[in-house]
Amino acid sequence: MEMLSLAEKILTLPPAAPFQWAAIFHKDDINFKHGHHNLEWYDPTSKSTEHQLPCKVRCSFCHSPIMDEGRNMILLFPSLIKFKSDEDKKNFAPR
């Protein structure tokens, strides 16, 4: 049986994204124009669709991920935000 060094194990890991582009907001700073009726919650810990925090939030129709909801904050994918101007969009560019 061949023993791999730690460096060899790390180098054989499958490729992954170096970072996730996300924006963090306080929940009080966010509201949905059309309510939450088309959203679905998922708690990966209990594998439940009950709304328990923290949880994943996704579209109830296509199940696309939208955000992660915590007790006080949400982690939202900026590509899903409809910005009013290009200048507003630049404020969310990765730094």
- Tell me, rounded to a whole number, the average pLDDT: 78
User: What share of residues is helical?
Assistant: 10-25%
Pairing-aware structural class of the strands and helices?
A: alpha+beta
Adjacency order of strands in the biggest sheet: 1-5-4-3-2
Give the tally of β-strands: 5
Distance between the termini: 45 Å
Following the backbone from N to C, one meets helices and strands in this order, namely: HEEEEEH
Count, helices: 2
Cα Rg? 18 Å
Which residues sit in consecutive blocks of at least 5 with pLDDT less than 50?
Answer: 6-11
Descriptive report:
The chain is an alpha+beta fold and about 100 residues long. The protein has a domain at about 35-95. Helices cover about 10% and strands about 25% of the residues. It has helices at about 5-10, 85-90, and strands spanning about 25, 40, 55-60, 65-70, 75. The protein has a 5-stranded antiparallel β-sheet with strand order 1-5-4-3-2, with no helix packed on it. A hairpin with a 3-residue loop joins strand 4 (about 65-70) and strand 5. The chain is globular and about 40 Å long. The protein starts with 5 loop residues before the first helix and ends in a 5-residue tail after the last helix.
